[in-house]
Write a structure and sequence with these properties.
Structural class: mainly alpha
Number of strands: 0
Shape: globular
Largest sheet: none
Distance between the termini: 17 Å
Strand content: under 5%
Length: about 60
């Protein structure tokens, strides 16, 4: 991920910015229609992949 971030000229880690972005994502997720969250829907697939990525990053 660090290599991809460098290639995209992403800003360095900032805890406050991360908190702000997670809050924005939460607001967006709250507006997803339930029909889009069913298995097989593209949104469900993306969220499942996001959850897997977060789990992989937070393993100790």
């Amino acid at each position: 991920l660090a290599t991809l971030a460098d290639a995209a000229w992403a800003a360095p880690y900032d805890a406050e910015r991360l908190e702000f972005q997670i809050a924005a994502l939460t607001r967006s997720l709250a507006r997803i229609p339930a029909s889009e969250l069913r298995p097989g829907c593209p949104t469900h697939k993306l969220l499942t992949e996001l959850a897997s990525t977060i789990k992989a990053l937070t393993r100790s």
